[in-house]
Structure formats: structure tokens, C-alpha cells
Design a protein that fits this description.
The complex is a heterodimer of chains A (659) and B (150). Chain A is of the alpha+beta class. Chain A contains 20 helices and ten strands. In chain A, the strands form two sheets. In chain A, strands 2, 3, 4, 5, 6 and 7 form a six-stranded antiparallel β-sheet that branches. In chain A, α15 packs antiparallel against α16. Chain A starts with a helix and ends with a helix. Chain B contains six helices and no strands. Helices cover 56% and strands 0% of the residues of chain B. The chains are: A alpha+beta (659), B mainly alpha (150). Chains A and B meet through α12, α13, β1, β4 and β7 of A and α1 and α5 of B.
């Protein structure tokens, strides 16, 4: 019964989305608030219907109702409760339902927070959001329905991939989708403004908080995914330039560009056309990601819920939506008024440079991801585009962006003072250069390029500190004045600083970990030891251990440094009988921001015929900074979001006051 | 004990782990071994989803590692080994596409886009009339005073 209720709610949401798209479209076009209001009601109702549908799916997973084919294929009675719930979005069908839930959720939020916006903009946006809802809900209901029954019902489910049974992964899709789909609001508002023909700073002020929210959530989602890869895949890598990772990274890069260009549009009325273009592109890249991940056109370590025939349908949705958006843009963009002029040295110029570099970086990721397909389609030989390509193209582009970044917030709008900014950043540059030199002198083995990379990280952090110091006139004004300025600093400023410093923290971690990680591997008998830099790793014992839905060999590994105990780690090698898979459960010893990463490998015969295990140990210095950095960036986004001027309803109020 | 036997029976069908560090495969000369590891990161495990042979435990990856290590011991240069691999397995085997005419778009586009963007920005800055004159010194001080009072 519950599954039928869920299916009914899904179709109900589809019908409500049709109503929303129609009523809001007509209501906005004819300026009929009553019709538009009814459409807003439909938007809220569609969200509630999907919430109910999603609840039904979770219920089916929790109660292990294997007469629902999706549950039978992706769950198991022995699976722990958390992963049964997470199983609801672990499959193609379930994840599309989550996508739709998020999409209608953002639609409902637009209806609630946008009350004060002018009727035309609000109604057209809700209509566009409704059309997106119709497309994805129709796809989910007719081609990817998670509530389909199977007869006869199997006695036991086929389980979920054990690699996916992990807390970081269980929570990473909801964040990722909240990010991806958050850009749908921005897309809808870009479409609405193009139809409406009015692109002003009120529009930009509306777009900024939604972009911030979506981008911050996406940052958390990607960070969680990278962290999962780091400790679950078993060799300490956290980013592989894999197509699926790239798919999530492209909307993030476009979102970052949009965040910055929207500031110019809001404050200076410039770059309007470009901001609209990015607003459209962010969601197009989100949809491209959804398509790449599910269609199987590219091979990936994260290959997930792959289905080529449904991939074609997703591609059609992508084509229709992107085509409509960009055609509308090409048709209406000429009507946009040119914005305020600015000098070559100005904050506008800095942000334009940031946008050029971020766009080129996005294009690089896109090209690198799709190039094998392009080569194949044009009759060339199949090629691979892997990490070495991105290291040689993407990385230099971003480093260039990092080098100009600290100057941006210090430059004045319209016409900046290059000399003044150079003076103010002098100390930061000196500290950064000093750190790079110290790194090359002190750290062994020496790496000049990596040391310069550390310098870039320090440059970003010091640059962020200088920005705050300048704003509060530290050392320039009397103490009371500094204090007054410090407390009066808008949250937006703190957000900027936090995000930029977070980027620096990430760069430090990424450079240090990649260059100076230490690795050791030996086949150890019980009591055997290996040395890992300054640490000694001893395999005390290995015992068989029964988990809830797996069998494991669990090693007890003792780590010492100069004879002093550091930690005891228990890496496991697990076998999941339900799916016949073997995984390794890495043991991590956290030492400050460093990790000792220990993997228990396969069993093999030792020297005297006694059993031995292949033990791999890694010392990953500063690795936690890699995950701390993005967290700071996301936090920076959320702090900015809490700024009075940037709250969701703020532009609506400002506009209401004007009217 | 039965569970243990079952467990050990299936071990071997493992996913990915930095397999290249396996001591049973290692070369004796540390410099050669370091070169081999460097090389592994550029070679694709052809049967895996998307991994280099440095990361994969698949049988083919083990074979490819043996081949590359063998070539290094035989004194071949990195380029010679790459050419050998491409002859045998096609361009698909290299994770770093060759700098060739066919791949020109791939390697040049990222920097081309930056140049094009830079040219656009330059055009934008030049096209704008420079009618806005700077403020006089007196106006500057007044403005500064106003801003500081803000």
C-alpha cells in the first residue's frame, strides 16, 4: 500500500508542477496575481507531495519491503538502519526522486521567500521552475519510478555496494543535490528576467544568496565525497580527475565564477549579460553532471546507477533545457543595458580576470572529460585523459587566479590604486616568499615547485588577513576605532575572508600531502614490523571478526615513534557475502592535521610458511587541511548568507520598499 | 574456522589499493623503482574503471607493471617505454595524451580561452570612453572625510 501511495504522490507532484508552470506563466504574463498565487500554492503542494513520496520510499527501505523492486535491488535485511535509509537515494530511481524533491523544495522556497518580489519576475521564475519540475518528474514517474513492484517478491534483497555503506557517503548525495539543484533557482530567475526584460540590481541581489547557498552546499558535498574516497578506496588518494568528480566540479567552478560576477552586477550594474549567462550555465552543468554520472558514456571509478537508454532521456532533458535557456539568452541579451565603466585597475577588472580564469578552468575540465568521446566520434583513436593532463593545464590556470586573488578585495570599485594595494600586500607577499624559501631549505627532500606552492597557500591566507586588517584599520587608527570597526564589520566581509583563507588552507594541504607523503609496504607476519619515516608500524595480531553483514580479518597494528606509543590501529579486510565483494577498512590515526593511514592487505605465505599479511602504511602530512579548507569555504558562504543584506527575503523587502 | 576459510577463499578479488608498492614486485635499485612508480601513474589499467596501474590490483595491471619494470631494467628510456606501450595497446593506455597535432585542441584550448578572454577584456576597457575625469585633490579629501565618517 505504502509504495502505491508513494507512486500516487509522485504523479500528483507531476500534475501539480504542470499546474504551477501554467498558472504562474499565465498569471505573470497577464499580470493576474490571483492566478499566480494559485500557481505558488501548487508549487508548495508539489513539494509536500514529493516529501510524502520520499517518506514512502524511505519507509519501504526501512521495513525492507522487497516487493518494491528498487528495495529488492538495493537493500538487505542485514544492512544497518542508517544505510537502509541512505539506500533510498543510493540507486538511479531513488536518487532521481531526491533530485525532484530538492527541485520542488527550491520551488516552494522561492514561493515563500519571494513574496515581496515584483509579480512578473516571481511568476515567470516559478513557471520556469515548474517546467523543470515537469521534465524531471515525468522522467522519474515514467522512466525511473522507484515504486515499481516486483512479483513474486524475493525473500532477500540484493544489498547495496559495501563501498557505499559509509556515513560520509550516506550523507554526501543530499548535500550534493542540494547544491546541484540549488542552481535551478538561479536558472529559473535568469530565464524569468530574460522574458521579463528587466535585469537590474534587484535581480542580482536575489540571485546572490541562492548561488551562495547552492555553492556552499555543493562544496560540502564534494568535500565529503573526496573524504570518502580518501579513506574508503584504500590508497589515500582524494581526487582522481575522474569523470564523475569532474561532473560535480564543473558546476562548482561555474558557481564560484557566478558568485563573483553577481557582486559586480549588484553593486555596479555591470557584466549583466555575463552574469545571466553564468546563471544559466551553472544549472546546465549540474544537469550535465546528472547525465554523465548515470548514463555510462564515460568509465569511472564511481560509476553509479548506470543505464544507457535512460541516459538518452536525461540527455534530451538537458538538451531541451539548455537549448531553451541559451536561445532565450541569445535573443534577449542584446536588450541588456551596458553597465558602468571601469578602469583597467579596479575591483571589476580583478573579478573579470577571476571569471576568465575560472571559465577557462571549467572549459578545461569539460574538454578533458569529454575529449575521449569527441575523439571517438570524429573517428580518431580512443585516448585517455587522466590526472597528468589536468595537472599541466587546470592547475596553472588556478594558480594564476590564486596569485591575483588577494588583490581583488583590496582594490576599489571603478578605479583602483595599484600602488597602494601593492604596498598593503607587501607584507603578505614577503611572508609567503619567506615560507616558500624556508620550505625548500628545511623540508627534505627538497622540491622547489612544491615549496612555491606552499608559498601560494600562505599568500592566500595572509592576503585574507590583510583584507580584514585593512577594513578595521589595524595599526592605523586608535584602538577604540579599530574595535568599533571590528564589531561593525558586515558578515559578508567575514565570509569573504573565511572562504579565501579556506582556499589557502586547502592549497597548503594539497601541496604538502601530495609532495611529502611517505609510503611503506611489507608482507608482515604476526609481530612483524616496518618503518615509515620516523614511525615504526608493528602488526601485533590478526583475528577473524564477524560484522553485522560482513566477515572480516581485523589486524591490531601498533604505531610507535622513538619507542613511545603513538596509537593502536585496527585496519580490516571485509568480505560481504550478500554481494560477494571484498573491501578494505582503512585505519586512520589522526596526529594533529597529519594522518597515519594503515591498510591490511591480502594474506600470503610468509618466509617460514607461517601466514603473513601485506601491510601498507602511509604518513599523510597535513592531509586534514585538504578537507578543512573546503569546510571553511562552505562556512564562509554560509556566514555571508547570514549577512543582513544577503538574506533570501532581503531583495524582496528592498524592492517592496521602493514600490 | 569455516568462516575464516570462506573469507580467505575470496580474498584476491579486491578493489583498488596502491598495489604497486607490493614488496614482491619491487625493483632492487631504488632509483629505478622510483622511476617505475612515476611511470605507473601515467599508464592506464585498461580493464579497470578508471585507474592507473599504480592503483590497481587487477591482473592486467600486475602484468603491465611487470612489463614497465622489465623495460626499465633493460635500460629503455621513458619515451621508448611509452612508444612500446602505445604500439601494443593503443593511445588509450596513456593517461597523459601525447603532445601531437591530433591532440592540439586538447592541449591548447585552455590557454587559448584565457587569451581570448584577456583580449575581450582589453577590448572592453578600450572601447569605454575615458570621459570620467579623476577628482581634484580637494574633492578627494572631502570624499575621504565623508567615507571615513560613514
Amino acid at each position: 500500500m505504502i509504495a502505491e501511495l508513494g507512486a500516487f504522490c509522485l504523479v500528483l507532484a507531476l500534475v501539480l508542477s504542470v499546474v504551477q508552470a501554467g498558472l504562474c506563466g499565465v498569471g505573470g504574463g497577464r499580470r493576474l496575481p490571483v492566478l499566480a498565487g494559485a500557481g505558488e500554492g501548487a508549487a508548495l503542494a508539489a513539494f509536500l507531495a514529493l516529501l510524502a513520496a520520499f517518506g514512502c520510499l524511505i519507509w519501504a527501505f526501512v521495513t525492507s519491503d522487497f516487493s518494491v523492486s528498487n528495495v529488492a535491488a538495493n537493500s538487505h535485511t542485514q544492512k544497518p538502519m542508517l544505510y537502509r535509509v541512505a539506500g533510498a537515494w543510493g540507486s538511479h530511481e531513488g536518487s532521481m526522486l531526491l533530485w525532484c524533491l530538492t527541485l520542488t523544495g527550491y520551488g516552494a522556497a522561492t514561493a515563500v521567500f519571494g513574496r515581496g518580489l515584483r509579480l512578473g519576475l516571481r511568476s515567470y521564475a516559478l513557471s520556469a521552475q515548474g517546467v523543470l519540475g515537469v521534465l524531471f518528474l515525468a522522467y522519474t514517474a515514467f522512466a525511473s519510478n522507484p515504486f515499481t513492484r516486483v512479483f513474486p517478491a524475493p525473500v532477500e534483497g540484493r544489498s547495496l555496494n559495501p563501498l557505499l555503506q559509509d556515513p560520509a557517503l550516506a550523507f554526501h548525495p543530499p548535500f550534493l543535490y542540494a547544491g546541484y539543484v540549488g542552481f535551478s533557482v538561479v536558472f529559473s530567475f535568469a530565464v524569468a528576467a530574460l522574458i521579463d526584460g528587466r535585469l537590474d540590481s534587484a535581480w542580482a541581489r536575489w540571485v546572490r544568496p541562492w548561488t551562495l547557498a547552492a555553492w556552499s552546499l555543493l562544496t560540502v558535498g564534494i568535500g565529503l565525497g573526496a573524504f570518502w574516497a580518501y579513506y574508503e578506496l584504500g590508497w589515500g588518494g582524494w581526487w582522481f580527475w575522474d569523470p564523475v568528480e569532474n561532473a560535480s566540479f564543473m558546476p562548482w567552478l561555474v558557481g564560484a565564477a557566478l558568485l563573483h560576477s553577481a557582486i559586480v552586477t549588484e553593486r555596479r550594474g555591470a557584466l549583466t549579460g555575463w552574469t545571466v549567462f553564468l546563471a544559466l550555465a551553472a544549472f546546465v552543468f549540474s544537469m550535465l553532471g546528472a547525465f554523465l554520472v548515470r548514463s555510462g558514456v564515460l568509465t569511472s571509478v564511481h560509476a553509479f546507477a548506470v543505464d544507457p537508454t535512460r541516459g538518452v532521456m536525461l540527455l534530451s532533458i538537458l538538451g531541451v533545457t539548455a537549448g531553451a535557456g541559451f536561445i532565450l539568452f541569445a535573443w534577449r541579451a542584446q536588450t541588456l543595458a551596458p553597465g558602468g565603466a571601469f578602469a583597467p585597475v579596479s575591483r571589476e577588472s580583478a573579478i573579470v580576470l577571476n571569471n576568465i580564469l575560472l571559465s577557462a578552468a571549467t572549459a578545461t575540465v569539460l574538454l578533458g572529460t569529454l575529449y575521449p568521446l569527441i575523439r571517438e566520434a570524429t573517428g580518431g583513436e580512443t585516448v585517455s585523459v587522466g590526472p597528468p593532463y589536468f595537472n599541466l593545464t587546470f592547475t596553472p590556470l588556478l594558480i594564476l587566479a590564486f596569485i591575483i586573488l588577494p588583490a581583488g578585495p583590496l582594490l576599489a570599485w571603478k578605479r583602483g590604486d595599484a600602488k597602494g594595494v601593492a604596498q598593503r600586500l607587501g607584507l603578505a607577499a614577503a611572508i609567503a616568499a619567506g615560507c616558500a624559501v624556508l620550505a625548500v631549505v628545511l623540508i627534505s627532500p627538497r622540491h622547489a615547485v612544491a615549496s612555491a606552492g606552499l608559498g601560494v597557500g600562505v599568500w592566500l591566507i595572509c592576503g585574507a588577513a590583510v583584507e580584514i586588517a585593512e577594513r578595521i584599520k589595524l595599526f592605523k587608527a586608535p584602538g577604540a576605532e579599530v574595535k568599533r570597526r571590528l564589531t561593525g564589520l558586515p558578515r559578508g566581509a567575514w565570509g569573504t575572508t573565511l572562504a579565501h583563507a579556506g582556499l589557502g588552507v586547502f592549497v597548503l594541504g594539497a601541496v604538502y600531502e601530495t609532495t611529502w607523503k611517505v609510503e611503506a609496504a611489507e608482507a608482515l607476519t604476526q609481530g612483524g614490523r616496518l618503518s615509515l619515516g620516523a614511525y615504526e608500524v608493528r602488526l601485533d595480531s590478526v583475528a577473524v571478526h564477524d560484522g553485522p553483514n560482513y566477515l572480516a580479518e581485523r589486524g591490531v597494528v601498533r604505531v610507535t615513534r622513538d619507542g613511545a606509543a603513538v596509537c593502536t590501529a585496527q585496519p580490516e579486510r571485509r568480505f560481504y557475502p550478500a554481494g560477494g565483494q571484498t573491501t578494505s577498512e582503512v585505519a586512520l590515526c589522526l596526529k594533529g592535521v597529519d594522518d597515519l593511514y594503515i591498510v591490511l592487505g591480502e594474506r600470503r605465505a610468509g618466509p617460514n610458511g607461517e601466514p603473513a599479511w601485506l601491510v601498507r602504511a602511509y604518513f599523510n602530512p597535513w592531509v586534514r587541511l585538504i578537507f578543512l579548507g573546503p569546510l571553511m569555504m562552505a562556512l564562509g558562504g554560509l556566514v555571508s548568507l547570514s549577512d543582513r543584506r544577503l538574506r533570501f527575503a532581503a531583495p524582496a523587502k528592498a524592492e517592496g520598499a521602493k514600490a | 574456522m569455516k568462516t575464516a576459510a570462506r573469507l580467505f577463499a575470496v580474498i584476491g578479488a579486491v578493489l583498488c589499493m596502491a598495489a604497486a608498492s607490493d614488496p614482491s614486485e619491487r625493483l632492487e635499485d631504488p632509483a629505478q623503482e622510483a622511476r617505475a612508480r612515476e611511470m605507473f601513474r601515467e599508464v592506464r589499467c585498461l580493464v579497470c574503471q578508471n585507474e592507473s596501474i599504480d592503483d590497481s590490483e587487477a591482473e592486467l595491471a600486475v602484468d603491465l607493471r611487470r612489463v614497465v619494470r622489465g623495460e626499465i631494467v633493460a635500460g629503455r628510456s621513458d619515451d621508448e617505454i611509452r612508444r612500446f606501450l602505445v604500439e601494443r595497446y593503443g593511445e588509450f593506455v596513456l593517461l597523459k595524451p601525447a603532445f601531437s597535432a591530433g591532440n592540439a585542441v586538447l592541449w591548447l584550448a585552455p590557454f587559448g580561452i584565457v587569451l581570448a578572454g584577456g583580449a575581450l577584456l582589453f577590448g572592453l576597457l578600450r572601447r569605454r570612453p575615458k570621459k570620467a575625469e579623476g577628482l581634484s585633490a580637494e574633492e578627494e579629501t572631502r570624499l575621504k572625510a565623508l567615507l571615513d565618517n560613514d
